[in-house]
Amino acid sequence: MAYQAGGQRPAPRPVPESPQAQAYLQDYDAYLEAVSFPSVVLDHRWDVVLANTAFRTLFRDVSPHPTALPDDNFLRFVLFHPDAAAVLGDHEASWCLPMLAQLAAALERYGHDPALQAIRRDIAQDPIMEAAYRQGLPHWVRAVGADAVEHDGAVRSLFHPDPRWGATRCRIVDETPRTLEDMGYTRLTMVLREAPAPAPRRARRPRRTAGHLSVVPAPEA
Fold it and tell me: Could you tell me which CATH number the domain at 36-192 has?
């Protein structure tokens, strides 16, 4: 799935006003940098608050995009960047669908958030993606169960640009301390497997200006 979202670039994310919070984030950024696996701190909109070098290295080969860079808003990257499937293996089933389900939950909780509403509008611009979100997604969640929606503990495929890893897998671990949680943030780390798992050779696919969730069929007319 790779849909060229037409929305505007999101407004800059708010920074905690408290000097103590700012100092904590500065120190936490230094701590994050010492982690060898890709690790990122996200807010409830999936805006990237902090990301370490390993995270940026994982996505170093993605092309420029006006609204969906991985170190800007990770949800937009997964859904809308044409290069997302080149890094995130089993892109639709393992990444897009769980994040769409989490977006639906976030919209129930933060329904008036303009950034989330903007993502929702961009989904609605593509008829097939909209049908997948409205009709296909609830069916998928019922079929796979609620656990498949959660990131923590999930094992997912990656295509790492470093040939030492190549086609491999990672376990996503939620490592959110209480202080970050109180700020409304979540920390996720992609723990790369020591021995890269064999994966089928990925074929190059042509870029698409509009994408769809092929694993979630649109409702019949």
Answer: 3.30.450
Tell me the DSSP string of 83-146: THHHHBSSIIIIIIHHHHHHHHHHHHHSTT-HHHHHHHHHHHTSHHHHHIIIIIHHHHHHHH-G
- pLDDT tens, residue by residue, 25-36: 999 999 999 999
76-109 pLDDT, tens digit per residue, is: 999 999 999 999 999 988 899 899 999 998 999 9
Instruction: Cite the DSSP H helix spans in the chain.
Output: 19-33, 53-58, 74-80, 84-87, 97-109, 114-124, 127-131, 137-144, 178-182
In the structure encoding, which two tokens stand for residue 66, read together?
Answer: 């006006």
Where in the chain are the domains?
Answer: 36-192
Q: Looking up tokens 């490592």, which residue turns up?
A: 175
Q: In this predicted structure, what is the pLDDT of residue 204?
A: 52
- How many H-runs (helices) and E-runs (strands) does the chain carry? 9, 5
